């Protein structure tokens, strides 16, 4: 009994101690969890703060209307030797959110003006309009305008809802959702759709991969809670913003260069300008990869990956050698695609599917197009030689234009690099430029360049380049803006320089990495106001059924576009927004022959609508053909802007025609 009683007391004590320890343990766990939660919350707040420094959510402005000059981002300099305030300046143009209510509320729109370099600049500026809709103008380089800068100010302004102008992107929506304590499921959906500038290797999914209705519902709530009226983010409002900016900057006239959707914005300016009060004169327009307002987008989408092949086949038929070597190529391609649709081609240990062949056909960059007729005929016969050579990058890599980018050959260093490129051409020439650029960051750039030339060239070519190199001095290298830019880029990449300035540059690059991406909700807004209300998915089906090669068409993207406006309740514009544009303003239409985003029929449509237009088809080119000032297209565009009424010399395009690979050449 005593033993049992003792055991009972011991057991009671143990129970009490255990209970006490459990209570203590629970308190400790609760305390730990509380501290962990606080730490997690603190870490989340830190991440939100870091994101908000890079990604500025859109909001109404607290400024008065008009021009406000501001410091430029480090990434907005037009060149290494450019001086802010002298050669260029940056600012904000504060405009009414709704132009019908000039007393506000207001939006801040970012712009950069690069001043003309000459002593007697023209009174008309050149303004660039980016594509999308949803892309940034401020993040695009101005390389294509270097020769025009002598006489023209170059202006870039981000359209409302893009870039640095109250960007409507999933990234901004994510920051707002985090700041407003949105539910975790909404945060996860936005994270999956957004680019993360703080994470290396971050990517964004394709439009077809997004759950658009869910994202629309989230972002509509976040953006409208900021006081934004999304129905005012339209092409017409963007056109008015641009004209009013030019008025505020006191320009008498202007020239517009639009790319892709930027051409629709440019054509809207052409249509609306006569209705504005005291507007500056629109002197000329360059439409690069035209996308007229009258295009019905959903119906056009199936043609995007298809029509380039019609153009390529037409070019082959027009060439006597290609036509004779590959007769009836249209019918043969159709039969080949039908056969591959039924079963893959098995040959040489490879299984080649319809998808494989379609993917290769759409890769018409460089000089690959010249090989496609040969590839089609070989595949028809069960042979894979040309297909495999193209797929593996053995052939078709040489660029159709023999020009090393936009080199200013008045600079002795760039003149030498251009000569070296011309001596090799193609991919080998481009690789040589890389090695020569590496030599410019060496302690003795001239000696390093001499070594590269000695190891690369011999014979007559080597003698000529060595003679050219002998005239290049250390002083010329030290004074070259090209060398200064290469060295500055290298220093920034290697972390060389003042830590504070490097940190500022890194933040600017992170901001640029977001601003330079397409703002998807802005894309949705414009199409939901100006396109989709007037179309049905059945229009795309009808278009698809009319294709010569339906296997190359894409109905999935049309279906995605047809569903784009669910949970995005903007009101449709009047149907007149789809009317053809009529204008007598001199217009240059630059159309890439193999453009898969805005196919040839769109450029031809713009040419029919604009009575004072010149249509230029650029061989072996895709989307956005004017990138450099010194190449063939840059020379044509520059000549047109300098004198819109003069006859254009298009002879340089002859060298870009496909050099068809014929059977005897293989």
Question: Can you describe this structure?
Answer:
With 666 residues, this protein is of the alpha/beta class. The chain has a domain of 58 residues. 46% of the residues lie in helices and 10% in strands. The chain has 25 helices and 11 strands. The chain has a 9-stranded mixed sheet, sandwiched between helices. Helix 2 crosses helix 4, helix 10 crosses helix 12 and helix 14 runs antiparallel to helix 15. The longest helix has 53 residues. It starts with a helix and ends in a 24-residue tail after the last helix. The N terminus is likely disordered.
Show the helix and strand layout.
Elements: H1 2-54, E1 66-70, E2 88-96, E3 106-114, E4 124-129, E5 154-157, H2 170-179, H3 184-193, H4 212-224, H5 235-248, E6 253-259, H6 261-272, E7 281-288, H7 297-300, H8 307-318, H9 320-325, H10 329-342, E8 345-347, E9 350-352, H11 354-361, H12 372-380, H13 385-391, H14 412-424, H15 426-439, H16 445-456, H17 459-470, H18 474-479, H19 481-494, H20 499-515, H21 520-530, H22 537-545, H23 556-562, E10 587-592, H24 600-609, E11 613-618, H25 632-642
Parallel strand pairs: 4-5, 4-6, 6-7, 7-10, 10-11
Antiparallel strand pairs: 1-2, 2-3, 3-5, 8-9
Helix pairs in contact: 2-3, 2-4, 5-6, 10-12, 14-15, 14-17, 15-16, 16-17
